[in-house]
Amino acid sequence: MTSKNITQNIKDLSSEALDWAVIQKDMKNKLGRDIYESWLRKIDFVEEMNSYVLLSVSTRFIRDWITSRYLDQILQIVKIYKKDLTRIEFKIIEKNSENEIENNITKKENNENVSFIKDTYLQYNRIDPNKRFDNFITGTSNKLAYEASMKVSENISHYNPLYIYGGVGMGKTHLLNSIGLSLKEKNKVMFISAERFMYQFVKSIKSNDMVKFKEYFRNTDILLIDDIQFMNGKEAMQEEFFHTFNALLDKGSQVIISADRAPNKLSRIQDRIKSRFAGGLVVDIQKPDYELRSKIVKQKTEELNIFYSNQINISEEIQKFISTEITTSIRELVGAINRVVSFSRIYNKVPNLSEIKVVLKDLLNIGENKVTIDLIQSTVCKFFKISKSEMLSSRRSRYLVRPRQTAIYLTKILTSKSLPEIGREFSNRDHTTIIHSVKTIEKLKEKDPEMTNNINNLKNQILYNKENEI
Length: 470
Ligand SMILES: Nc1ncnc2c1ncn2[C@@H]1O[C@H](COP(=O)(O)OP(=O)(O)OP(=O)(O)O)[C@@H](O)[C@H]1O
Description:
Blueprint: H1 3-12, H2 20-31, H3 33-38, E1 44-48, E2 52-57, H4 60-69, H5 71-81, E3 87-92, H6 96-111, H7 116-123, H8 143-154, E4 162-166, H9 172-183, E5 189-193, H10 194-206, H11 210-218, E6 222-226, H12 235-250, E7 254-259, H13 271-278, E8 281-285, H14 290-307, H15 316-325, H16 330-347, H17 353-359, H18 361-368, H19 373-384, H20 388-392, H21 398-414, H22 419-425, H23 431-447, H24 449-464
Parallel strand pairs: 2-3, 4-7, 4-8, 5-6, 6-7
Antiparallel strand pairs: 1-2
Helix pairs in contact: 2-5, 8-9, 14-15, 14-16, 19-21, 21-23, 22-23, 23-24
Adenosine-5'-triphosphate binds next to helix 9 and helix 16.
């Protein structure tokens, strides 16, 4: 199997019809089970046109939520299978029959004296048996977080709350899960992501089930809450969380929190909550150094080799290549090994180094992507001869609006930032302003060659530090 064949196989995928079930599976893997179950599972496929795909959801709220947070990632996944699709459109199709079914279930369960709401939580309280302390590999960057998690599992309320933070894919969920696993025999454990907490919270308000919601969360012995940064800006949810949190600490329950940043860096989260977080034990997980990366690669390769009865022998050279090149996160590292193993099983041979480069192309690119919003803003400001404070101001003079829209457009196409993230970097503008800016520039590009020229020029400067080539 040559690199050309592999590339061809990847290309061949584009000629097949879009299989929504496959895309849903990818969304689940890429964005995680919680986000998938809460929002993405509700998306139905309607039809595929030349350049866009039409999907449906049942309410405007769900559409807006998905559009503002996950649209980019969904499009990226869709493009893997159909690179010609450039847009996703949503249609609202109300699902009365689904609501009726849900109401009937509620009634049935109420009759049987089983709390509907409680069961709903339990469905999402699944602890993953594969993420344990004994398969968490430690190194300098995560040792402290690991040891603190072990301590909490041995001695509840010793450090309360325990707050673990670190970048994406560094092992925070793995540690929270391990704590949950080791304490669940003797304690009532609740493991939930902040996103799911929010979803249940909104659902309980809508269905007048707040009492049960409060009771359920306040009755737990161990509350593990993942990705707390997600609460940003959601005042009502923060209020509820704060009271739940205090009630739990008062009764001696253990609270463990994970986030992508330190408590004092959390944005749009009430100060009293941040200060509560900072009052417990705060530990971070840093980026893995080479030593840890190579330990993980070695151990995971050995595990998989044993699992597949010694049929997969990934050479030291390849192990070293992966450990050196994939530095972004442990998730990428583990993903890379899994991909190499899948390749070996499909093609019945271990890939050589040049094949590895094809198989892991997208992962290897991640580390090289150095385009930041700051770079885009500065380059655009220099190009249009305006200052950065003018660009970020709220002034609407024409000589500022176009450069601002251009910078927003370039951020959208050159980075993987979501619309709200881009909005925040442009002085907290709303995501609808961001959508409007992108659409305006797209339209202008179609009819104004000067605009196309400017955009190409700017793209070159940002990506390659060159002025005139594309
Ligand atoms: N030290 C480690 N040893 C073994 N596996 C690890 C380690 N750290 C992370 N992993 C694995 O890497 C993957 C990503 O880890 P995890 O989901 O815990 O990251 P995270 O920090 O919670 O990321 P996110 O912020 O995206 O939720 C998981 O499959 C996890 O089991």
